[in-house]
Write a structure and sequence with these properties.
Blueprint (H helix, E strand, L loop, with lengths): L8 H4 L12 E5 L3 H13 L3 E5 L10 H6 L7 E4 L8 E4 L1 H12 L7 H31 L5 H24 L9 H16 L8 H11 L2 H7 L4 H4 L6 H7 L6
Parallel strand pairs: 1-2
Antiparallel strand pairs: 1-3, 3-4
Helix pairs in contact: 2-4, 2-7, 2-9, 5-6, 5-7, 6-8
Bound molecules: glutathione (GSH).
The site of glutathione has 12 residues, from helix 2.
């Protein structure tokens, strides 16, 4: 004979255990446009993270510990202790990190294939175009020991062309891939550098200007870009020791 139940099933169930707190992601970081991409995404997703400054002016990008997770000796990189299968994973290259965090959280990187293709297009456009070209333009404008007109014109023109592409896209879309996504996070720091450095936006690129203001106003973007690293503010790019570390790198 079946025993009569003394309690309804629901009451007999063990109390649901509190969800274990997510372990923080380690962010290997320096406050630059590539570093900001990831601090912005972590802030947007509300993921806990710990910042590990990598002082690239002192050569910390070449330590064996850092190279083990970032073999290209460039920030940013992350270690997620709660990676696939619950095991840690390290990721380098900012585009790969953004996609990883987008897949992990399901945020700012849509599942639906057409929407995802649009995000990938603009993300890779940033990784292969806007970032490297703005980086070179910035280098020749600010760091070259003498003005080289050909290099200045080549990179400044190419950045100008890319801003035009972005402006045209943003004339018909609120954000690069339609909705706000990791593609916008990838671009905002570089557009900011260009605007602060040499290119006024409102006159020639009004849609881009509108986009920049909208992205910059996001609280998570403000927090991501606002991380203070005292040592970074003190870097003197004219210090020969700093220049020897950052410029003229060759295979080691
Ligand atoms: N393609 C890389 C580029 C990263 C990159 O250039 N990082 C710079 C800072 S913005 C860096 O770490 N520079 C160190 C060095 O030049 O040695 C990415 O997007 O992650």
């Amino acid at each position: 004979m079946k025993r009569a139940r003394t309690k309804p099933r629901a009451q007999r169930r063990a109390k649901p255990r509190a969800k274990p707190r997510a372990k923080p992601i380690d962010l290997y970081y320096w406050p630059t446009p590539n570093g900001w991409k990831i601090s912005i995404m972590l802030e947007e997703c509300g993921l806990p993270y710990v910042v590990h400054p990598v002082d690239i002016s002192k050569g910390e990008q070449f330590t064996s510990q850092f190279l083990a997770i970032a073999p290209n000796n460039r920030i940013p990189a992350i270690v997620d202790p709660d990676g696939p299968g619950g095991r840690p994973i390290s990721v380098f290259e900012s585009g790969a990190i953004l996609q990883y965090l987008g897949r992990k959280t399901g945020k700012f990187y849509p599942h639906e294939e057409r929407a995802r293709v649009a995000v990938d297009e603009w993300l890779f456009w940033q990784m292969g175009g806007l970032g490297p070209m703005a980086g070179q333009a910035n280098h020749f404008r600010r760091y070259a020991p003498q003005a080289i007109p050909y290099a200045l014109a080549r990179y400044t023109d190419e950045v100008h062309r890319l801003l035009g592409v972005m402006n045209t896209r943003l004339a018909e879309h609120d954000y690069l891939a339609g909705r706000y996504s990791i593609a916008d996070m990838a671009c905002v720091g570089w557009v900011r550098v260009v605007e602060r450095g040499w290119q006024e936006l409102a006159g020639e690129f009004p849609h881009l200007k509108r986009w920049l203001e909208a992205v910059r106003e996001r609280p998570a973007v403000k927090r991501g870009i606002g991380i203070r690293i005292e040592a970074a503010s003190a870097v003197d790019i004219n210090d020969p020791k700093v220049r020897a570390i950052l410029f003229g790198q060759r295979a080691r």
